[in-house]
Amino acid sequence: MVEWVRRASTPLRASTATLNSPRGHEGALLSLIFLLLYVRSGGAGGPLLGANLVCARGLTDRQRAMCHAAPAAVAALGTGLSMAYKECRAQLSGYRWNCSGVGDGAYFGHVMPLATREAAFTYAITAAGATHALSAACARGDLPACGCAHNSKLSVQRRRGSSPSSSDQFQWGGCGEVAFGARFARRFLDARELEADARSLMNLHNNRVGRKVSETVKELVRRECKCHGVSGSCAVRTCWRALPPFAAVARALRERYRRARRVAAHAAPPPRTAFAAHVSLAAAAAAVVQPHLVLRRYRPNGVGRPPRKSELVYLAPSPSYCEPDAAAGSPGTHGRHCNRTSRDEDGCEKLCCGRGYNTVRVVKHVQCRCQFHWCCKVTCDTCLSRTETHVCE
Questions:
Q1: What family does this belong to (predicted)?
Q2: Could you tell me the mean pLDDT of each successive run of 10 residues in the chain, 393 residues long?
């Protein structure tokens, strides 16, 4: 039985902002992410076939060279992108913008077209996912370019039949090279940002934040051990360093997303020393500082400080995300489930944008109070289960 209860609608208070159009190079990045994810699911062809396919499509020369040189690392990077988009949806499931259409379906690999805080979060969590997946693949020994000298030494000892010394009673497996993952992710993902404009500066900054957060979480690396011995004894223990779940990285980025700072591109004047008498005009022109990001100030001629390396940054205010708007990357909130008692982002008042919501009550028969009777029968009672959900109009 399904009962619909209509709640009185309230006036719509939010509006969708009209912002700038997407940049041209974002389309190339869509193909890049799609093909990177194809690497991991390439089937019997292995990562080399998938990497060759990636390298055949509209990449920069530097990215193409990395594809050919490290196909296994490119495969791991593609896995990290898929993991990042999945975790993005999990972390923002109760928000108006919940990563819908990012990396799935017809919008597979979609990048937010506007330079909003949502775009900042997308770039940061993508870079963090790539770093995390590459680090995990390195720790498992899946990447030929990433090794661990200590483990190689132990492997040689075992092959030669030599017994480990007292200092080697705890045998470490894997290498936990988080630095390798961050380095490869930076070289590959940052190579896409060829323009020296404000959006590229924003993307590069947020990529760096994602990598740094993923690297910082390495401090939470935990040691896991497995005992080997007769009758459960622990005569020999094999231990390894295990990376924490990627959800820990995503939660840290979500907090930075909520505190993201709005910035603007600023070109500082050349240093005073550049105008000394012994300096030519050409040298003075060359001394002009390249544009960089500063916190946006709302007073005339106000120039803010550069953003901190731990802060996510964005250039344009976010739309309301209340109504569908393909140009803004907004699927709208119609039909979304909300929490009637919550005053947070997932509350019906905020999530439904003041349009009101419908209450759906479902009553069904389920088995309950089941008991096992020797031997061999299970008997259950029949109970009524009542559930109530709330759906935005």
A1: Belongs to the Wnt family.
A2: 41 38 47 48 39 56 82 86 90 91 53 87 92 85 67 40 43 56 87 84 93 75 78 78 82 93 78 49 56 77 81 94 89 93 92 94 93 90 93 94
Predicted confidence at residue 16, as pLDDT, reads 38
Closest to 390 measured CA to CA, from 344, 327, 324, 342? 342
Q: Where are the domains of the chain?
A: 1-17+324-393, 20-155+166-260
Count H helices and E strands in the chain, helices first.
11, 12
| Helix/strand/coil for 180 | helix
Cβ(330)–Cβ(323) under 8 Å? yes
Please give the structure tokens belonging to residue 83: 């993991």
Note the pLDDT of residue 44: 35
Angle at 62 between CA 61 and CA 67, to 5 degrees: 95
What span, in angstroms and rounded, lies between the C-alpha atoms of 124 and 250? 9
Distance between CA atoms of residues 192 and 212, nearest Å: 19
Q: Please give the Cα distance from 138 to 241 (Å, whole number).
A: 12
DSSP characters over 28-91: HHHHHHHHHHHHHT-GGGHHHHHHHHHHTSS--HHHHHHHHH-HHHHHHHHHHHHHHHHHHHHH
C-alpha separations of 159 from 145, 147, 153, 162 in Å: 22, 18, 10, 8
**Ramachandran quadrant class, 354 (left: phi over 0; alpha: psi -120 to 50; beta: rest):** left
Please report the pLDDT score of residue 49 as a whole number.
36
Give me the architecture of the 1-17+324-393 domain, per CATH: 2-Layer Sandwich (3.30)
Report how far residue 88's alpha carbon sits from residue 112's, in angstroms, rounded to the nearest whole number.
Answer: 13
